[in-house]
Design brief:
The complex is a heterodimer of chains A (306) and B (231). By secondary structure, chain A is α+β, with helices and mostly antiparallel strands. Chain A is built from 10 helices and 6 strands, in the order ααβαβααβαβαααββα. In chain A, the strands form 2 sheets. A 4-stranded antiparallel β-sheet of chain A has the order 2-3-1-4. In chain A, strands 5-6 form a two-stranded antiparallel ribbon. The longest helix of chain B has 16 residues. The chains are: A alpha+beta (306), B alpha/beta (231).
């Protein structure tokens, strides 16, 4: 029984290769159809992944800056840090809340220009230093940032709170729109391809109605008839996915290397090729296979009804 | 023992045409039966119901113990495996060789390659086409193509061989060659039911003959009773 199944499997694989070659022009039509759509799908995925990546990077970089009172004690600074950490919508980890104390701000400014150096060199004691200590705080959801800012503002010892400017907000809204738009395009494309492939395969199968009729005549069960066609659809899907996969694998890596991972100066950081290209290749292969098999299945089913 | 039994079979097509009207018929194992009659007498419908291409509107059709009328669409293959069918237009796959056309019927069942080879060679020998196994149907004459179709129909070793006008496209000499092949198959124990309008052949073969008219049996002739009348 097992041997029989193995034989049937191998025969199906062999026959699907044979019949793709025998019905070459129609097979080529199906394969091209899959290839073209998968290329567009690959481009869309690449675009949306990068836009998404950019959005995330910007979101991560958006911080609330809380300036503290000038005469605040070091003890109170620590307490305020703890209080901020307890608020909702604050990211976890040490990096999320960073203290920029007045001493390090002074040093930084002194290094940046001689004028500052002259003015500031005598502010050695905390009391002499008129600058304000500041906390840089990262939030989880930037849409909730205003509420978080308000909460921080209410903490005793906090004098001024600055959050991200309106522009960043808008930029992120636009990026969000682009990401959602590309997702919609990808899904629509996949559906259209499935439909197109189903139709192309339907034509392929229609041209082989005679073969199906004869198979029925010599006693093939519906499964016997369907399986070779579904295998063929699978194979068409795999063949159709080859070119897009090669393109994404080599093309994207080359692009990444060429621009050193960044576009428009340092404004846009590209998604690293690994594991990105493998994931995309996997998705492309899966779409090709599923769509090919499904298309065949649907198309042959139509011919099995009497 | 009866291999095929038909009881009170009616067939009315959707357009209202009655093709078969209250037909009773039984065919024994190993018989060679001709079904004749004018065009539209219901002879094609009759055999189409045997291999369940058509379903009777009423009545019972037993083929090898299975009630063909009640069999579900997706179980049709069960009945098809018990019988072979040969048509006027051969129904060969032009892109497959003679060998592949015949092997096609066995490969579906997942038989080992060696077994397929043995069986195919054996039937090709029986129909006299062993030396043409590697040719394509288009390279063969009509008679040869029909012999390939017969080989495919019997390679499974069916109990019944149904022939629908197998000589319809062939000249007299070639037709007789086909009849000789069919007779040889019949002698090996296969029951043969053949629909034809070529009464000359029927006269020569001296087999049981059933004459249909308007969906009813007009007359039945036992072996040797039928005489071909030259008009």
């Amino acid at each position: 029984m097992f041997m029989k199944l193995i034989r049937i499997l191998f025969r199906n694989i062999r026959d699907s290769f044979k019949s793709i070659i025998r019905n070459f022009s129609l097979s080529l039509a199906s394969i091209s159809c899959i290839t073209i759509t998968l290329i567009v799908v690959a481009l869309s995925i690449t675009l949306s992944a990068n836009v998404n990546n950019m959005t995330k990077k910007i979101e991560e970089d958006v911080t609330i800056v809380a300036f503290l009172d000038v005469d605040i004690t070091e003890e109170r600074i620590q307490e305020i840090g703890e209080e901020i950490r307890k608020l909702p919508n604050i990211q976890e980890g040490k990096e999320a809340i960073v203290l920029d104390d007045k001493e390090s701000i002074r040093k930084e400014m002194m290094e940046s220009s001689d004028t500052y150096k002259e003015i500031m060199q005598n502010w050695e004691d905390r009391k002499d230093n008129p600058l304000k200590d500041a906390y840089h705080i990262k939030v989880v959801d930037i849409n909730e940032m205003n509420k978080t800012s308000d909460a921080i503002r209410k903490i005793e010892g906090v004098s001024v709170v600055k959050d991200s400017e309106e522009m960043v907000d808008q930029l992120i809204t636009v990026f969000d729109g682009i990401t959602k738009g590309t997702y919609a395009i990808v899904i629509a494309l996949i559906l259209v391809t499935a439909f197109l492939i189903a139709n192309t395969i339907k034509i392929t199968i229609f041209s082989r109605k005679r073969e199906i009729d004869i198979m029925r005549l010599v006693g093939a069960s519906n499964m016997n008839i369907k399986i070779p066609f579904v295998f063929e659809g699978l194979l068409l899907g795999v063949l159709g996915a080859v070119l897009p996969i090669v393109m994404i694998t080599y093309g994207y890596s080359a692009l990444y290397t060429k621009f050193d991972g960044q576009l428009f100066g340092k404004f846009v950081t590209l998604v690293k090729p690994e594991p990105f290209i493998f994931i995309v290749s996997g998705i492309l292969l899966l779409i090709g296979v599923v769509v090919g098999m499904f298309g065949s299945w649907r198309a042959v089913k139509k011919h099995l009804k009497i | 023992m009866d291999l095929i039994t038909m009881r009170h079979v009616h067939k009315v097509y959707k357009n209202g045409v009655t093709a078969i009207h209250d037909l009773d018929l039984s065919i024994k194992k190993g018989e060679f039966v001709f079904i004749i009659g004018a065009t539209g007498c219901g002879k094609s419908t009759l055999i189409k119901m045997l291999y369940r291409e058509e379903r009777p509107t009423d009545g019972q059709i037993l083929v090898g113990g299975i009630d063909v009328a009640k069999i579900k669409n997706r179980k049709i293959y069960k009945i098809r495996r018990k019988l072979g069918v040969v048509f006027q237009d051969f129904k060969l796959l032009p892109k497959l060789t003679v060998y592949e056309n015949v092997a096609f019927a066995l490969e579906i069942f997942g038989l080992p390659k060696a077994e397929i080879y043995n069986k195919v060679v054996k039937v090709l020998e029986l129909v006299g086409l062993k030396n043409k196994a590697k040719q394509y149907p288009t390279q063969l004459s009509g008679g040869e193509q029909q012999r390939v179709a017969i080989a495919r129909a019997i390679v499974n070793g069916p109990k019944i061989l149904i022939c629908d006008e197998p000589t319809g496209n062939l000249d007299e000499k070639t037709s007789m060659e086909i009849m000789n092949v069919l007779e040889a198959i019949n002698k090996l124990g296969t029951t043969i039911i053949m629909v034809t309008h070529d009464t000359e052949i029927v006269g020569k073969m001296k087999k049981r003959v059933i004459e249909l008219d308007s969906g009813r049996i007009l007359k039945e002739y036992q072996e040797g009773e039928y005489v071909h009348e030259v008009n």
